[in-house]
Amino acid sequence: MNTMLQVAANTRGRDLAVGDVHGHFTRLQHTLDAVGFDPAVDRLFSVGDLVDRGPECEQVLAWLDQPWLVAVQGNHEGLAVAHVRGQWLDLGMYRTAGGGWFLDLPAEQQLRYVERFERIPLAVELETALGPVGLLHADCPFADWRRLREMLRAPTLEAKVQEVCQWSRRRVQHDDETHVAGLRALVVGHTPLAEVKVLGNVWHIDTGGWASGHFTLLDLGTLEVVAP
């Protein structure tokens, strides 16, 4: 999983990014329908946390099988991996955070999900006409994207690097306007907000579509919010 997937520019349609889904795929589909998403030419980029909390988590494998969906691994996918691979995990916290659907599955079914989650990259780099756009779940651990790219080419990944990529809320908590060099924009989720927030060149797009908010779709070619 310690990989960065590099994706060529879309010359046929739109590349849209969406914030955390958390098992609300029907709501997401309604949002895509409302903006005329065309799976024949458009692509959807997920900033992770496709599962937990919502009622349709078991649909995640079907969504990940779609050729037009590109995802990064969020901390909730990471929790499932940690549980199955025998890493220490506070199971009470995991259940409270919405992981009960996964914990209650038979072991062989858990493994099926985890084997797919492990193939989701930690980071995505998308080429656009105006420069590269990066996607992570939470934040970049370095001031320069190119350093993260180098780290993800190494045979092993420092736990702290993965932790920042999937768990950090520091940038939002401190209103840190520092740019991430080497990118036109970095797009992240993880921290639910009432509206999209841009700090430096980092776009926070989890607007609580899985809860009482709405799903934000961001056009990665233009960096414009696509309103349903």
Automatic annotation (TrEMBL):
Under the heading Pfam families, the entry gives:
Metallophos (PF00149)
List the transmembrane segments: none
Q: Which InterPro entries match?
A: Ap4A_hydrolase (IPR050126), Calcineurin-like_PHP (IPR004843), Metallo-depent_PP-like (IPR029052)
Instruction: Indicate the segments forming the Calcineurin-like phosphoesterase domain, all copies.
Output: 16-139
Query: What is the name of the protein in this document?
Result: Metallophosphoesterase
